[in-house]
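[step 3/7] fold_predict: job queued, chain A
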Amino acid sequence: MTRNRLRSAILAGAVASLGIVGAQQLGAQAISGHNSNAPVDYAADRIELQDKQNRVVLSGNVDVKQAELRLRAARTVVDFTNQGSMQIQRITATGGVTVTRNDEIATGDVGIYDFNRRVITMVGNASLKRGGGDTLHGNRFVVDLNSGVSSAEGRVTGTFSVPKKQ
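[step 4/7] structure written:
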């Protein structure tokens, strides 16, 4: 596999997986609704394949789009194993991480997706906002994709919208 095809394969897998990061929501109910098979577009000021470290680094205005999902960060590191075929192990996005999907926005200092455990973690000034006005703020959010359970830690605060009576 040529270096360019290798990069494309790594990035396509990494970016497809980033769709799950953006699916974090107040109740995690839309995680299953994201089309992770949709084509992926990505852009960054720089890409670096670090063969010996088994990782790819996207840096500078990283912008990843898949279907209605968009991730922006200053830097994204994709860790993988290369035992006959590329297998993404972990994606770590840093530097003003913002993930949007329709009217939902997740932000944090760091976003991590652990492929082996199927767990997504947003750390540092984490917030989740939905278009209806629901918000959640905390230091750390964890979404377990196996169980569908989301949890927040670190002095959690938020607002829930209440429907107006007619």
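[step 5/7] annotate
Confidence is low (pLDDT under 50) at residues 1-33.
The first strand starts at residue 40 and ends at 43.
exit 0
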